[in-house]
Structures are given as C-alpha cells and as structure tokens.
Design goal:
Elements (H helix, E strand, L loop, with lengths): L20 H14 L7 E6 L7 H21 L7 E5 L12 H7 L2 E6 L6 E3 L5
Parallel strand pairs: 1-2
Antiparallel strand pairs: 1-3, 3-4
Helix pairs in contact: 1-2
Protein name: OmpA-like domain-containing protein
Keywords: Cell outer membrane, Membrane
InterPro entries: Bact_OuterMem_StrucFunc, OMP_bac, OmpA-like, OmpA-like_sf
Length: 128
C-alpha cells in the first residue's frame, strides 16, 4: 500500500544542507505522523540540487541534504530503520534552472513511501 504523507517539501538555500528553521517545525509534525505509520513503512528521502556548480559537488550536496532530513526525523523519534536517504544531484529538475525561483524550487527534498509488499513510488509532497 502506498501512503501519501501531507507535509511540505524542504527547499534549501543555495549550497547549503542546513534545514531552514521554519522547516524544522514542519519536519517535527511529519515525524509525529510517521511515528503512527505501520512498522513495515519504509521512506526514502531524496535530495536534489539546482544545476549551479560542479556535478560532483552537487551530487554530494544532495546526499548531505537527504541525510540531514533523515537525521532530523530520527532526532524527533522516527525509527532509523524506517528511513533511507539518497542524493540525486541536479537530476530530475522540477522547475527551470533559468530563474532564481526555479533554482530555489529544484533545491528540494522529495519522499518515496512504501508499506507492506508494495514498491516505493514517488510521493509529491505539498509545496508552500
């Protein structure tokens, strides 16, 4: 069974894997929801960057972003075994990288959620 989680996506500042303070409250709310999920729930946290900079650096930054969100959720009590983190660099742009707004939208986190024997599929988190 695929479960849709209704919490906002996190958009990072350029070159940063620091979770914005405003988003920590949203993550805390998400953690409360996740802690109520069935024990077999698995969530993959996917990190992305815009296309500014070196491909290798963007890949590493996206991995750090996903890990930062995973670690924050664990700090709020979500079982670590439920969560995995993966970085995709600048792949799969959600918006055009030609504008500052588009680049901001591409510096994001997305989630793949699966419960039971279902394969994880992309869940589109709400945007602000």
């Amino acid at each position: 069974m695929i479960e849709t989680l209704n919490f906002s996506s996190i958009n990072f500042a350029k070159g940063s894997n620091d979770i914005p303070e405003a988003d920590k409250g949203l993550l805390k709310q998400a953690a409360e929801q996740l802690k109520k999920s069935p024990a077999d729930t698995r969530i993959q946290i996917d990190g992305y960057t815009d296309n500014d900079g070196d491909d290798d650096a963007n890949q590493k930054l996206s991995e750090r972003r996903a890990a930062a969100v995973r670690n924050q959720l664990v700090s709020y009590g979500v079982p670590a075994a439920m969560l995995s983190a993966k970085g995709y660099g600048e792949a799969n742009s959600k918006a055009s990288n030609d504008t500052p707004e588009g680049r901001f939208e591409n510096r994001r986190i997305e989630y793949k959620v699966a419960t039971g024997n279902t394969t994880a599929e992309k869940v589109a988190p709400e945007t602000r």
